Amino acid sequence: MKKILSLIVIAQFLCTSLWFAGNAILPDLIEHLGVGIEFLAHSTSAIQLGFIIGTLFYALFSIADRYSPSLVFFVSAIMAALFNIGINAPQITTSSLLVLRFFTGFFLAGIYPIGIKIAADYYQASLGKSLGYLVGALVLGTAFPHLIKGMAFELPWQYVAYATSLFSIIGGLLIFIFVPDGPYRAIGTQFKLRAIFTAFRDKPLKAAAMGYFGHMWELYAFWTFTPLMLQFHQTLHPELNYSISLYSFGIIAIGSIACVFSGYLSVFVGTEKLSKIILFLSGCCCLVSPFVLMSDSSALFIAFLLFWSFVVIADSPLFSTLVAQNAPNNIKGSVITIVNCIGFFITILSIQTIQLALKHLGNEYSYLILALGPIVGLFYLNKLRK
Prior knowledge:
The protein is mainly α. The protein is built from 19 helices and no strands.
């Protein structure tokens, strides 16, 4: 069983490296396409929108419940890799790039939620720890393109797409060849919209989902704008010489450790209680962000971003665990997919909101808006407890 978990984790890491491949090479794309920095929000929103439509498609046809999750993962990994490598086309335009990012996101819907589904089919009692590793792999995969870009030195920016597409194909093969369907898998026959709505009337499932939605409002906006935070602080202090790509990788990647840590800690503290503590801490980071962004201390600034990155993701496996454990077994894959779908729609709203706020509030105060997510999530979790 440990071997299976290791393979799922490695495959998730390799495949989800596609997610921020476009963000890592954004400065080169901006120069190549002749667009402004606002293209960062549009590019990220395109892949998020693709993921949303993809999750709806996978849920509507009950793909994760009707067909082998391992086969679904494999096919999705191959298709996502093909669309990802398309950004290297010589005559790429802004419109075609956004379309390619959209379809990359579409097929990522057959990777991340399906990976959670596969883990849930193998692990029940230890699902929290298992998802800690799984979400940690997602975080590391998300950060990895920044590392590739930072370490590429004189290599053309196109190599980021080549590398991440190759990783996705390898990850898909690992699942398809070595990870059969799990012993706890329940085969569904069709998409039952009424059954899913009925499932969400369950108060623990609803509270877990609302906590997850609040967490998602903050998470992807933080990841998207981390390079801009670094760039802003460097502009205030020209004597600093940040490697934006390498620092972005380190800051985002520390979240992988956070996911594993929270997965183990949840065994002793309790999944629901720990998720509330972590959500509270990340909300506090949003509220104090103006003071730290304007700080003269680079050590304080970097330490703050590392801590914020740690707590902004540490509750993700906890909420995924709560959703998976409270979802009915015969529609578990569809429920997980729908929750992911709504969560990622929320990320588009928050990313576009922050992009708009940057124009009117400036870099100092824009990230206060992210505190709304933790506030709403904590409200519903505390309401359940009462």
